[in-house]
Description:
By secondary structure, this protein is mostly helical. It has helices at 7-24, 31-52, 54-67, 69-79. The chain is globular and about 55 Å long. The chain crosses the membrane at residues 39-68.
Amino acid sequence: MIVPMSLPLFLACLWAILGTVTALLPVRRQMIPGSVLLLVAPILLIWLSVAHGWWIGGLAVAAFLSMFRRPLGYLIARARGQRPELPR
């Protein structure tokens, strides 16, 4: 019996593929698609957690933090008042 994939799971997989494609772009061209992915992520993570449970949501958060560790580090440094250098 084939079970269809849920919409939040499908969108999470699509988000991961788009994140990988964005990472392959030159750094100066990653800003806009990376920002969009960063803004969509919390909504998608909450939806995925509600639909499939907290442990799937936890795995998705770990994947998100792994993929966006540098941009999140930059945003945290800016929030602390530091002036981190942007990659060129």
